[in-house]
Design brief:
- It contains three helices and no strands.
- By secondary structure, the protein is an all-alpha fold.
- It has one domain.
- The chain is rod-shaped and about 85 Å long.
- The chain starts with a helix and ends in a 7-residue tail after the last helix.
Length: 70
């Protein structure tokens, strides 16, 4: 049905005069989802950096390289 209607409109030269109206909540609804994914990525990176920093400090402590001021 869709292909037939499209072909009919094309062959008859029917222009689309009306601009497609998209509900605003659909456009704005993307922002919270993007922000959620950004927060998740941030938390994952901070956790990875914290684990790397912790393991580096443990290795320095075991080898005696850890300074008392740090």
């Amino acid at each position: 049905f869709g292909a037939e209607t499209t072909w009919s409109f094309y062959t008859r030269g029917i222009p689309v005069i009306k601009v497609l109206e998209v509900p605003k909540f659909l456009l704005l609804g993307v922002i919270p989802f993007g922000s959620l994914f950004l927060i998740i990525q941030f938390i994952k990176r901070v956790r990875g950096l914290y684990e790397a920093f912790s393991s580096e400090r443990i290795m320095q402590k075991e080898s005696g390289e850890l300074k008392s001021g740090l």
